[in-house]
Amino acid sequence: MTILGDAEAQFHFINKGQDDELECHGFKRDKVKTSVTVVFATCTLGLLFLVFYWKPEWFVWAQFKSCKLVDADVVLLQTTDDHRTWSKERVKYETNDSMPLHTSSLEASCEDDKDLHQMQELSETSTDSSPFSYRQDNALIRDTRSNCQPERQNLRYFIHHCLKYVWNAEKQTFEKLRSLGSGMPCSSFYTLRHGLSSTDHANRQSLYGDNVITVEVKPYIKLLFYEVLNPFYIFQLFSVCLWMSDEYYYYAAAIIVMSLTSIAVSLYTIRKQSEMLHQMVESHNTMLVKVCRRGEDVDCQEVISTDLVPGDVLVIPPNGMLMPCDAVLITGNCIVNESMLTGESVPVTKTHLPSQSSEVYSPEKHKSHTLFCGTQVIQTRYYGGEKVKAVVVRTGFSTAKGELVRSILFPKPLNFKLLTAAYRFVLVLVGVAMIGFTFTVAWMALDGESVGEIFLEALDLITICVPPALPSALTIGIIYAQRRLKKQGIFCIIPERINICGLVDLVCFDKTGTLTEDGLDLWAVVPTKNDSFAPAIQDVSLLPLGPFLTAMATCHSLTVIGGNLSGDPLDLKMFKSTKWELEEPGSEESTKFDMLVPTVVRPPNTTVLLHPSPHEREHPYEVGIIRQFTFSSSLQRMSVITRTLGSHHMEVYTKGAPEMIIQLCKPETVPTNFSEILMTYTESGFRVIAFAWRPLEDKVRFLQAQRMSRDQVETDLTFLGLMVMQNALKPETTPTIQQLREANIRTVMVTGDNIRTAVSVARECKMICSGQQVVEVTALPPTDSTPPTVTYTVSTKHMEPVEVKEDKVNADDEMDQFRFAMSGKSFAVIRKYFPHVLPKVAVGGTVFARMSPDQKTQLVEVYQDLGHYVGMCGDGANDCGALKRAHAGISLSELEASVASPFTSRKATIECVSTLIREGRCALVTSFGVFKFMALYSMIQFMSVLILYGVFANLGDTQYLYQDLVIITTIAFVMSRNSAYPKLVRQRPPTSLLRPTVLFSVVVQIAIQLAFQLGAFYLLLAQPWFVPWEDYRLCNDGSMNTTDSNITMNSTLKPCTVDYESESIIKVMKVLTYETATMFGIATFQYVTTAFVFSKGRPFRQPIHTNWLYILDLIILTALNVWLLLYPTQPVAYFVELSQFPDFTFRLYLLAGAAANFVTCWLIEVLLADNNALWKWLTSSYHQHHKKKYQILQEELLYDKDYGLPVGAMHLQGTGKESNCNDGHRGDMCSINVQADNACNPNVDSTYL
């Protein structure tokens, strides 16, 4: 859309390349435009501002003119995604009288020249040019060093989605306010160890604001105001006012009740979610904390947590605290419960940030040193009397918890064709209504009707054609579905997502805790002896005392909480298998070491360490853990530095992924058959952990050990052996995967485990079928001498020969030739250097191993870009991003971290996935049925009323009420009660109301109803006793012969004895006509017919007879219709305003016509509209040219035996002879290697995959 004026030249991108990328357009007020807008708004009685509420961009374009951002009073923001949604924000100004407002990062006091000099040197290495980056902040410090009282400055900013965007004068654009640490070396945090001065703190608070995550719980009256401004409710209000003016009080009251009920349910849901979020953040919004203040009389002072700003030094008490912000540890260690963040209640250890590291700080990369907002510090570990300190880096909505809350408050919209098509369909109905409006105005004007009567009748057609009850009818179906899910232990916080679940055609699963059991069992250990593997030992207690056993007893992050050993389940199993004892600090025993250490471990029986020198005394064998390098998902390992009591040196023990550990070991210590042994265990589904160690030099003392970097410690290690863990599948996993495959729903494993273990589990749960080849995709980044490469290794292990029919090839068939498996590292390389390869790898991929949380989210986005509706199922640990991004995110954890997931299952098995898809399909088909029924209802009534308008007749208020309230409302309330069909089928529900099958059904049913209405009308005209209503209108002028013997009227009609000049009499006589009785009689049956025909049962819903309330309603309505048509009593006929036909045979003809109408509609729907084979044949050409991206790639992969690779680029590695990689019989492995022609060009022209 083009912005008025020269706006295209005035916008800038902000958050470029990020998920929340925006176009920012500048505008300033135009007095002339504003004056014109006020005039128009006055003339429209304020309705123009209602339109502006719906369209904020129109509000800006109508009153402001485009300008440069530097002059803007208002900014117009547009997302760069497919939705292109607009929002407006006002630019605000603040004045600061103290230090420059650019000091959003680190600065030193003028008093501390040493720290300042260090900061100035470090800042030279930064390249970030943001006004809030580390480098420029320090430049400002240098500029103001001679004078600590800078001049008054103004700050221009706006707030969007609870985040502040500030003006960057250098770049002439707005930028998101950065947190402390952006572009900042780790060592620089230690320059703030003394805290901020009061002046610095006041400065920062003016820039960052209060440290608070505010979730407003709006009062019901305010929520009601926003809710009723919905366009549908505005239209309902218009309809109600119109009906009231036409004295149609009963249905108007019914619509008001229905709307208020729908609004009440919506308000209750919104209010409940707001209260839940408010309670979630309120616990840490206001609390007392201790901070260090530079230059104060006391070292620490208590402040309210809302006063915290980035740069404050927080003192963590020994008994822990609930973190009110994100902070980096600079002294001591902390035991933290991060269930809010990860979904796992397992305590984790946080260590202080390396003090000598020049590495740039990153919250993700250094999360083992970062305390996140909302997490609970259980206890602290410290050395001597030193306090445990942490530097505040992020506050408010910038924190990890703030991001979580923002993702709930401002969810990223998803493309859903049902909503788009529904709006288009409504627009079509509006178009039809306008045609009827025009006809009515012209026809009645020619007849000489009054202007008020003309517009009243014409506007009535619009409310008939666009049913005001449509939103309520659709909402009812969602409410029923949500209740059914709740009964099955699945809770939904975004009900609108239920319909989308019915379209899911691909589900990503986490492995550990999702497909497999949470716990791990230690199966065996495989130590090394003389640089080769010894036989596996299943009883760990049989291991001799030595480095391997000590590594198992020390290389963990376990801690004692409340007298119980707590920590990672794997670490717990490992440590308990050694039967050693663990002692926390504080006891007298721990003082045997040089300094206080966090943890001491010892064997169960007192073991004496005898020193060779007779002068040295004996010591019990105890090991103190001097320092921990906690587990990092990016490094895939953890390490500890220990010292054995009485020993003169320290040792390093490391455990982690085998492929990572051997890279840190001396090559000569790694057994030559390492790969074969590892593959043996991983391909059998075991989880394998490797151990290594090395002694440190004697000169390394305690303080030196605390200052050593991780790279210095984890090098030149000696390989010790393997620990083999068994992780069994959950009993429900394989049957559920089989159900999904039979329903043609793809399943993908996204895990952090070893790739071969993941492949083995995928085979075990039938995610990869027997007979399918697994192609392991390995991508390597470029080096100084080699370009980036992609290698495809074909494994034929576990393959069984399967007969495949050549004549029937289906891209969705189970018997695909191969499945891709790849690691997170390869995923990152392909995404960066081979982006054209990634789509096919994703389409053919089944196993994605060693994936980081961000990569899981990226994979979900790749599948969405290919046209899939993606479901994601995980236990909350590291899956939160993917759960939020997927169309249907299902968390198996009820902890706080999973609150952003649309669905949460109380039962921690993947059975909930098939349940959710079944219920989603049921809800989706129900929504289609209800929408089609409401559309047909409006068209049936529209056509019948239009026919009556043609003869200057109309339906009576009671007749409208009977149709709208008794028939339509009751059907709409019970039509959606059908539960989901118990089996998932391959057939998929329609994705849009504009699909050919849906359009055919609606259009043909409308045509049938019109045909039978016209047939009934012309049958009436052919009756010998019929006299048109128009003749009665003219009889008062003497133009009608009332003595005609063929005319027989009932006693209520005495045409030539009434005063036709009376408007009230004319209104009554318009209703008491044979035409009205005929159209009313046939239409009432058509409503019931349409409701029955559009109530689909199998294969997505239970058969219609299971909805006994619905069947009862249809039976009662049919009986009432028959009664009113054949022989209503006189009081009933009078009440319903029915003119009784003099000929009973004609009534039977109408009843027969209604029956024929029912049979015709049902046969057309069953034989044509629901004939999948017919429509597949008819639309084959259309689908051939309108396939989704993933369908095209599936076919290419299915027919391409070389995986899409150019034949000339294929060669076998290490065989020296040609071979066919798809043969599957020559050996276990063969490889295909591809290299990028130009490593510097990620878009290199190539046909790889």
TrEMBL record:
EC code: 7.2.2.-
Gene Ontology MF terms in the entry: ABC-type putrescine transporter activity; ATP binding; ATP hydrolysis activity; ATPase-coupled monoatomic cation transmembrane transporter activity; metal ion binding; P-type ion transporter activity; polyamine transmembrane transporter activity
Domain Cation-transporting P-type ATPase N-terminal: 191-243
Stored Gene3D superfamilies: Calcium-transporting ATPase, cytoplasmic domain N, Calcium-transporting ATPase, cytoplasmic transduction domain A, Calcium-transporting ATPase, transmembrane domain, HAD superfamily/HAD-like
Encoding gene per record: LOC118430463
Cross-referenced Pfam families: Cation_ATPase, Cation_ATPase_N, E1-E2_ATPase, P5-ATPase
Localization terms from the record: Early endosome membrane; Late endosome membrane; Membrane; Recycling endosome membrane
Main location: membrane
Segments passing through the bilayer: 36-54, 251-270, 422-446, 458-481, 934-953, 959-976, 997-1021, 1077-1095, 1107-1126, 1146-1168
Protein's job: ATP-driven pump involved in endocytosis-dependent polyamine transport. Uses ATP as an energy source to transfer polyamine precursor putrescine from the endosomal compartment to the cytosol.
Membrane-related topology note: Multi-pass membrane protein
Limits of the P-type ATPase A domain: 296-408
Cellular component aspect of the GO annotation: early endosome membrane; late endosome membrane; recycling endosome membrane
Keyword vocabulary terms for this entry: ATP-binding, Endosome, Magnesium, Membrane, Metal-binding, Nucleotide-binding, Phosphoprotein, Translocase, Transmembrane, Transmembrane helix
PANTHER family named in the record: CATION-TRANSPORTING ATPASE (PTHR45630:SF8), CATION-TRANSPORTING ATPASE-RELATED (PTHR45630)
Catalyzed chemical reaction(s): putrescine(out) + ATP + H2O = putrescine(in) + ADP + phosphate + H(+); ATP + H2O = ADP + phosphate + H(+)
Protein name (Swiss-Prot/TrEMBL): Cation-transporting ATPase
Lineage of the organism: Eukaryota, Metazoa, Chordata, Cephalochordata, Leptocardii
BP terms from Gene Ontology: intracellular calcium ion homeostasis; polyamine transmembrane transport
Organism of this sequence: Branchiostoma floridae
Annotated family: Belongs to the cation transport ATPase (P-type) (TC 3.A.3) family. Type V subfamily.
Superkingdom per UniProt: Eukaryota
Domain P5B-type ATPase N-terminal residue range list: 18-168
